[in-house]
Design goal:
heterodimer; A: mainly alpha; 13 helices; flat; B: alpha/beta; 6-stranded mixed β-sheet; 4-stranded antiparallel β-sheet; 10 helices
């Protein structure tokens, strides 16, 4: 009796085979995950070995030099910080405003869908194309305003580059705010602006912040459009205003990495460490801000 | 179709005249003419898709927010057609409040939930008092008076729904629309809401959509039965449930379909 019931419910051969396929798939997925993480780790270790020793005080206070032991990243680091600050100031309000308009105000007609499709397309345009645009519009045509190959021109160019990403992330965050919240607000006699101001934006802000940070993370490593629009590769001063010439960390890294001497390669590795630290701390600040806002609701 | 009046004194709080709602080509509400008497509870019942939610949303122009919804006919409130050229939907919604199917408190404190309406409407007054009175009217004050700064999301579902009622009352509406206000709640929370409705009708006119026929029978003074967008029958609740004149009403209230 007990034998028979055990046989009835014990694992049939067919199930063994099905399980094996399941297990194989799981291992493949694990393998692909590990590949990415392992290569990232190898890269980080390699860079740390090459560059950590070069992260001295001089490295942060000096300008690039022909003598590796006297070379530093001060102008490039300052240029990157200037650029990021200006991009955040330009792209964040524009992107959020566009996202709010498209989600809360725009009528659902063909004009809106044309705009929507093109924003998605713009997000996929190669960054060098933005460099050409920046050169033509901001450096040449708007010379009187931007001062030519300035950090402002660079920031405007990079802002165009990240705008589609910020708009799309903003729209997703706004769409994630439940319609029932909007109904509750309108139901109390709130205007559209009051509903957006008091409910939609505060609730969407964490998502918008995340999207903006991701966009800035992309921007901080951008090199091609800035070279295209004419950021300098060798610079020995710090920009003092938005109309000053500038360089950025990735350009400096590229410059050093392309030299034959090993010392310069080590300098490049050290600059990469700085760039990564900058990027990770930006993300950390963003996560902290996001959590803070989330608690306040 | 003639206006279906119910025997109540005084001018009605709301009156619809040949009211139709179209979503694109589909007619969700078909030329309904009815009166909602003042300080009474009117229940709208009928099977899913009969247009009762669409109809109640005409009473505070909530359908304006639905793209491609088109409204024909009139809704008369205090002698004015809600759909007349000069009428501002924002002002309509201040005077005709709404409580929704699922409790939808703002992710803010209990206090801020109630204070939001008066604040955005520029009410100058003792906000603490407005909040207290509104919460008392919604029978929630005793449960929350010591934790007004706590997030509304920490309340139970039934408490959240009473908070939504308090929030609606804070802007001093004349009519309260309730779209299945208890359908997401357990029986105890539901009976609390029902008691509250009975209490509120002393000061407000209440229109309630409900799927629950026992609820309609328990709380309402008048009941309207809708089917496929048409107002089939509208009468004193007792009559609808005991001696309806229409065959389809009888089939529905006795549970033969729907």
């Amino acid at each position: 009796m007990s034998d028979a019931s055990e046989r009835l419910l014990s694992t049939p051969p067919d199930l063994v085979r099905r399980r094996r396929w399941g297990r194989a798939f799981e291992l493949v997925c694990l393998g692909t995950t590990v590949v990415g993480v392992v290569f990232l780790a190898i890269m980080l270790v390699d860079i740390l070995i090459d560059g950590a020793g070069w992260l001295t005080g001089t490295f942060f206070t000096e300008s690039p030099s022909r003598i590796p032991s006297r070379a530093g990243i001060k102008p490039a680091l300052a240029g990157t910080l200037w650029l990021m600050g200006l991009v955040a100031l330009i792209a964040f309000p524009l992107g959020v405003a566009a996202a709010v308009y498209l989600e809360e105000y725009a009528a659902r007609n063909w004009i809106q869908s044309v705009i929507q499709t093109n924003i998605a397309n713009l997000a996929g345009v190669p960054s060098i194309v933005y460099g050409i645009l920046g050169l033509a519009v901001f450096v040449r045509w708007m010379f009187a305003l931007t001062g030519g190959r300035s950090v402002l021109s660079g920031a405007l160019t990079i802002s165009l580059l990240v705008l589609p990403v910020i708009i799309i992330a903003g729209q997703e965050a706004i769409r994630a705010v439940p319609g029932s919240i909007r109904e509750a607000s309108y139901g109390l006699g709130a205007t559209r602006w009051q509903t957006v101001r008091h409910h939609v934006l505060p609730n969407a802000l964490p998502g918008i912040m995340t999207g903006t940070i991701l966009a800035l993370s992309r921007a901080i490593g951008e090199t091609a459009p800035l070279i295209m629009m004419g950021a300098l590769t060798f610079i020995a001063f710090v920009p003092e205003g938005p109309r000053d010439a500038f360089t950025v960390l990735p350009i400096q890294i590229f410059n050093w990495a392309s030299r034959p001497q090993d010392e310069f390669r080590n300098l490049a590795a050290a600059a990469i460490i700085v760039l990564l630290v900058l990027l990770l701390s930006m993300n950390a600040v963003a996560i902290w801000m996001r959590n803070k806002y989330r608690k306040e609701w | 179709m003639p206006t279906i009046k119910v025997t109540a004194e005084g001018t009605p709080a709301l009156e619809t005249r040949d009211l139709s709602v179209l979503y694109g080509e589909t007619k969700a509400v078909k030329s309904i003419s009815m009166e909602i008497p003042r300080n009474k509870i009117v229940a709208l019942i009928g099977p899913s898709g009969c247009g009762k939610s669409t109809l109640i949303r005409c009473f505070n122009r909530m359908n304006d927010l639905v793209p491609n919804a088109r409204i024909e006919g009139q809704v008369i409130f205090r002698g004015e057609n809600l759909y007349a050229e000069h009428v501002d939907p924002v002002e309509v919604r201040r005077r005709i409040g709404m409580v929704f199917q699922k409790p939808n408190p703002f992710p803010k404190s209990i206090y801020d939930n109630v204070a939001f309406g008066p604040r955005i409407n520029g009410v100058n007054g003792d906000m603490d008092e407005i909040v207290e009175v509104s919460l008392q009217q919604a029978a929630l004050w005793e449960e929350v008076k010591d934790r007004l700064e706590v997030s509304a999301l920490e309340l139970s579902g039934g408490q959240q729904q009473r908070l939504c009622i308090a929030r609606a009352l804070a802007v001093t509406p004349e009519v309260l629309l309730m779209d299945e206000p208890a359908s997401a709640l357990d029986p105890i929370a539901t009976s609390k809401i029902e008691e509250l409705i009975q209490e509120l009708v002393k000061n407000y006119t209440i229109v309630i959509v409900t799927h629950n026929m026992q609820q309609a029978a328990r709380v309402s003074d008048y009941t309207a039965y809708l089917y496929l967008g048409e107002l089939m029958e509208y009468d004193v609740t007792d009559k609808i449930f005991t001696a309806p004149s229409e065959r389809s009403t009888e089939d529905y209230v006795t549970g033969r379909f729907g």
